[in-house]
Design goal:
Layout lengths: L2 E4 L1 H7 L6 E6 L2 E3 L2 E3 L2 E8 L4 E2 L18 E16 L30 H10 L2
Antiparallel strand pairs: 1-7, 2-5, 3-4, 5-7, 6-7
Length: 128
């Protein structure tokens, strides 16, 4: 079963609980000469309460020392998109992005972000 790693700060701020839906967003990245644009690749549902487990199952990002991300929540896949949903074309319609010119600031440095139900429905309905 997949897990979501949660920082202490995210736990306090978002209070994830069973039944919550999580959209999986991948930021823009370069793979050799190809640029992969930001995209949403799946919807998962939280199926457990947050729990503590310090066993190392996640790769620690550079600059985070020996972090094991001990706060976790179990997830089940709801929909893994056959074709990722491109994020940039949705920006003009997404309500949670208030600065359409500097939209990345709404996501940068955040492991999680609450979004309005309308934005969730727009993203999911854009999946093919």
């Amino acid at each position: 079963m997949p897990y979501c790693k949660i920082t202490e700060n995210d736990f306090e701020k978002y209070k994830l609980k069973p039944g919550d839906k999580l959209l999986i967003y991948l930021k823009q990245e370069r793979d050799k000469d190809e640029i992969k644009e930001p995209r949403i690749v799946a919807v998962y549902e939280a199926v457990s309460e947050v729990f503590r487990d310090s066993s190392r199952i996640f790769k620690t990002p550079k600059g985070m020392g020996n972090e094991t991300f001990p706060l976790r929540i179990r997830l089940k896949p709801i929909k893994i998109f056959d074709k990722p949903v491109e994020f940039k074309p949705l920006i003009p319609e997404l309500k949670f992005i208030t600065n359409k010119q500097k939209w990345s600031g709404h996501l940068m440095g955040k492991a999680m972000r609450d979004i309005p139900e309308d934005d969730y429905r727009l993203i999911v309905s854009s999946a093919k």
